[in-house]
Amino acid sequence: MGILEKIKQIEEEMARSKLTLTDCVERVLNYTGNSTEEQGDGPHGMACIKIAEMNGSKSSGGGTGFDVQKSGDARIALIGFPSVGKSTLLSKTTHTASEAAAYEFTTLTAIPGVIEYKGARIQLLDLPGIVEGASQGRGRGRQVVSTAKTADLIVIMLDATKSEEQKRLLEIELDAVGIRLNKSKPDVVFKRKTTGGITLNTTVKLTKTDEKTVRTILAGYKIHNCDVMIREDITTDEFIDVLIGTRKYMPCLYVYNKVDSISLEQVDKLARQPNTVVISCEMDLNLDYLIERMWDELRLVKVYTKKRGAHPDLSDPICLRKGATIEDVCNGVHRSLAPNFRYALVW
To answer: 47-61, 108-122, 283-297, 301-315: which has the highest mean pLDDT?
Structure first.
């Protein structure tokens, strides 16, 4: 059997069993006898590249994410480059053991754990380490970022012994897939209509863009009939985000691990940065404060229920996000309660 016939056979098997790229490359290398160092050279290396392209073309969408059921009162996603201490943090703060080793890419799938704090159950997801170019699908990057979009808080793990470039690269990867960190949704009302042209109103003075630019952007997206109300001084990029409508605005904590390996001056400098916590998983330094900051960033509130004529049950609260309604409380008790609910007394 020639190499082209082998590719066709593997392609058919990919369609049946959804083989990963690694599986396909290993199949070809085992067949040809080539080593991984040689896979980029010669006809056999080209076969590996062809399989990579086939696999990439079949998964060129936005990514499906890891199949992890959302549980608990909130979800936190751990994101970072390989070997920054994500698995160690999961093992230290939850009752879940995640494999940690001295080599990179120890974690190959999403591993969930549960943090129990102040009566709340917070799901902590240890996601595989991402690499530069993850937003384009490198290193299962699309799956990682798709899962991160389902979280209520993102914790970016960083290595305190490395440069600040790692932080910038991670922000770029998340920004490329529509995740806006520590930003609020622009106060802009956008409504399409069938006729009437473009109606543009502003309640503040625009200093970062202007009306002509806004109309040019609308024309670029082939929007010729709409109502736009701008209530804050936004940038051009923020207005484009409003038009696209799929951006997700999420709180984020930057956690610097391995601070036991740097000087006190460097630790103090890192700790003074906004939305930043410094820890050492190896020496259990500052982990309690990290969990407290996670609680604050999630903005969870505890709701206690009571029967008429009885004292409230303070042992089992319902934890909800700040701004929750009575209907959310009913759904927290049981989904069948809300349709038949009449009134509530709130203290």
So the answer is: 283-297
